[in-house]
Amino acid sequence: MSAVDRPALAAAAAAAHGIDRLLVAAGPNLRWLTGFTGSNGLAVLDVAGSGGGIFLTDFRYMEQSAAQLSSVWEVRQSAQELLGPGLADVFAQAPQGALARVGFDDAQVSVAAHRRIVEELRGRVELVPSGGIIERLREVKEPAEVARVRAAAELADHALLETLERGLRGRTEREVATELEVAMLRLGAEGVSFAPIVAHGAYGALPHAEPRDIAIAGGTLVTIDWGCRLDGYCSDATRTFAVGEIGAFERSIYGLVLEAQEAGLAAVRPGPLGREIDAVAREVIERAGHGEHFGHGLGHGVGLEIHEGPRLSRMGETPLAPGMLVTVEPGVYVPGVCGVRIEDLVCVTETGHDVLNGLPKALQQVD
Ligand code: ZN
Ligand code: ZN
Predict the structure, then answer these.
(1) Which pLDDT does position 357 carry in this prediction?
(2) pLDDT tens digit string along 71-112?
(3) 122 has a pLDDT exceeding 90
(4) Is the pLDDT of residue 52 over 60?
(5) pTM of the predicted protein model
(6) Residue 326 CA: which ligand is closest?
(7) Which ligand has the nearest atom to the CA of 237?
(8) C-alpha–C-alpha distance, residues 105 and 84, integer Å
(9) Residue ranges per domain, the chain?
(10) How far apart are the CA of 237 and the centre of ligand 2, in A?
């Protein structure tokens, strides 16, 4: 499945937290660690071992686990709540009083599940909050993961080009969004990575606008933010188009966002912190007097999840490293007038970056 020994990598990272076991519940972290795509599973990673451990799931997923997991995992069936009695069975033979330090993801495990574990495993384990270990490892992608995101980005581009062939003017935002979604599925995507955003005119000033049943009028800008999922990996891109002749003000906003986007993009390479890349693009927009119209971060990591680390925002303290996949997506949103966002998805390389999506960024007129 993966060229890198992820369980060994995770065990090494977890060891730095002084824990004996790390619990990883179903979701993107478990998929990354084990390859398991089902909805109910729990890995109990043996931190001291060379990587591997016990994998709990219920009878529905026994066959799937055998197919998806490598032999470093001892798959066990449990009919009980995994984060509770199921886990208690794993530690049943451990002598009372010999506390195992068990790391759990404090951002994912519910208060109820935490209470269950404490009650079921009293005297056997000590729970240690250890969130973020797997997320941080997931930030740096392997070449095979980059290839999947690139394929998803190419498919999404292709789907948008098909959708634009039928024009934008006179069609409702919702029609365009639905057609785009169907095109991505028809071309082989397993789903969308998020519901496409199609917003025109003043409505484009809402960064997360939901498509409306309102026809796209001439003389407006239309922002389309879309992405698909392929082999579990997400793509994400945004383009803003002109429908018919737009005014000088809209044109100037477009030019400003493009300048900021290209400046931010040019800064993407190994070394700088996320917030430093954010600052490069933000400064362009601030200098033009539109600082208050750019109210979100410059970008985010993309992978098994549409929003993951590292963040390119004022709070981004992670230095960029080769293999990270991030978006660069400045926007200027002028309330009641218009909005422009331009977003590329890029891979940080040894020497700079590589853009994974490919549609042109010069202002394009689509009718
Ligand atoms: Zn996006
Ligand atoms: Zn994005």
Answers:
(1) 96
(2) 999 999 999 999 989 999 888 877 666 788 999 999 888 999
(3) no
(4) yes
(5) 0.94
(6) 2
(7) 1
(8) 15
(9) 6-138, 143-355
(10) 6
Cα 326 to averaged position of ligand 2 atoms, centre (Å): 8
- Residue 278 CA to ligand 2 center (angstroms) comes to 14
Q: Give residue 180 CA to ligand 1 midpoint distance, Å.
A: 14
Q: Given this model, what pLDDT does residue 49 score?
A: 80
Q: Is 40 exposed, middle or buried (0-12, 13-18, 19+ CB in 10 A)?
A: middle
CA atoms within 13 A on the CB side of 261: 28
The token duo for 11 is 């065990």
Q: What is the number of the ligand closest to the CA of 208?
A: 1
Homologous superfamily, domain 6-138? Creatinase/prolidase N-terminal domain (3.40.350.10)
Helix axes 274-287, 248-266, angle to 10 degrees: 150
Counting residues of the chain whose pLDDT is more than 90, the rounded percentage is 88
Residues 243, 352: contact at Cβ < 8 Å?
A: no
Specify the DSSP element, H or E, that contains 116: helix 111-120
Cα torsion 7, 12, 15, 19 to 10°: value is: 0
Report the pLDDT value the prediction gives residue 97, as an integer from 0 to 100. Answer: 67
Residues 6+ apart with CB under 8 A from 71: none
The rounded Å distance from CA 88 to ligand 1 centre is 42
223 alpha carbon – ligand 1 mean position (Å): 10
Predicted confidence band at 124 (pLDDT cuts at 50, 70, 90)?
Answer: confident
CA distance 215 to 4: 49
Ligand 2 geometric centre to CA of 360 (Å): 17
Q: What is the DSSP string of 125-187?
A: EEEEE-TTHHHHHHTBPPHHHHHHHHHHHHHHHHHHHHHHHT-STTSBHHHHHHHHHHHHHHT
143-355 maps to which CATH number? 3.90.230.10
- How many Å lie between the centroid of ligand 2 and the Cα of residue 342? 10
Q: b/e per residue, 201-239, with b = 16+ CB within 10 A?
A: bbbbbebebebeeeebeeebbbbbbbbbbbebbbbbbbb
CA of 120 to the centre of ligand 2 (A): 41
Provide mean pLDDT across the span 32-58. 94
| % of the chain surpassing 70 pLDDT | 99
CB count in 10 Å sphere of residue 190: 14
